[in-house]
């Protein structure tokens, strides 16, 4: 059991982690760091933290073994900088950001201050805010931790144990592997959803049924958050887009040329891959 776990920016993910830790008695204290009093009060009322501070890193970190940064990607570097200025030393820092290499490389600047382990729980939704947090959000969800030659092995084990205790299935990858994979499995789907919705005319919404709803759901994701994710993983995202364009060109060519055989072949290939991943319906 941890004595004090600090969660900076408890929203959907951070709040869910706080609830899971409290429900399972994984820490004596779950301390939240907030920017606004209203957010702190909401998290306390929802039992996502046991106490909290408004932008007070020094007080919140005192006596903590682990700090979880649960802010949007574009804020994480600033949080790391703030953590480097506190009096305490030797604590573990991890995050929940959707990109890893840029963050991990920046955190190495402070290796004498704290031990950083990149993290990314593959859970959540297009919703944000602690009011959407759930104590069982991570059960059977994959959580990726990152490790390279500079990562402290004991810190990885400690963070891994925390996530596994919430019910998550932990994989350990290099930061580059994470970003390369997630460009295809997470970042590209968002770009496709944005492109799909932007290709439509809302005046035809009467005729948009479950197919459109299902394929466009993640287009409702927060724009500031996803701008920072896509820009942080730019090279990998651009490569994923190039592969998607090639496949789209094949479908376009088959339709333009009346090539029924090729079109059916590509549709079947997609069906087989999806059925392999999620099971036939």
From TrEMBL:
<dbReference type="InterPro" id="IPR050812">
    <property type="entry name" value="Preph/Arog_dehydrog"/>
</dbReference>
<dbReference type="GO" id="GO:0016740">
    <property type="term" value="F:transferase activity"/>
</dbReference>
<dbReference type="GO" id="GO:0006571">
    <property type="term" value="P:tyrosine biosynthetic process"/>
</dbReference>
<dbReference type="InterPro" id="IPR008927">
    <property type="entry name" value="6-PGluconate_DH-like_C_sf"/>
</dbReference>
<protein>
    <submittedName>
        <fullName>Bifunctional cyclohexadienyl dehydrogenase/3-phosphoshikimate 1-carboxyvinyltransferase</fullName>
    </submittedName>
</protein>
<dbReference type="GO" id="GO:0008977">
    <property type="term" value="F:prephenate dehydrogenase (NAD+) activity"/>
</dbReference>
<dbReference type="Pfam" id="PF02153">
    <property type="entry name" value="PDH_N"/>
</dbReference>
<dbReference type="GO" id="GO:0004665">
    <property type="term" value="F:prephenate dehydrogenase (NADP+) activity"/>
</dbReference>
<dbReference type="InterPro" id="IPR046826">
    <property type="entry name" value="PDH_N"/>
</dbReference>
<feature type="domain" description="Prephenate/arogenate dehydrogenase">
    <location>
        <begin position="3"/>
        <end position="281"/>
    </location>
</feature>
<dbReference type="InterPro" id="IPR003099">
    <property type="entry name" value="Prephen_DH"/>
</dbReference>
<keyword id="KW-0560">Oxidoreductase</keyword>
<keyword id="KW-0808">Transferase</keyword>
<dbReference type="InterPro" id="IPR036291">
    <property type="entry name" value="NAD(P)-bd_dom_sf"/>
</dbReference>
<dbReference type="GO" id="GO:0070403">
    <property type="term" value="F:NAD+ binding"/>
</dbReference>
<dbReference type="Pfam" id="PF20463">
    <property type="entry name" value="PDH_C"/>
</dbReference>
<dbReference type="InterPro" id="IPR046825">
    <property type="entry name" value="PDH_C"/>
</dbReference>
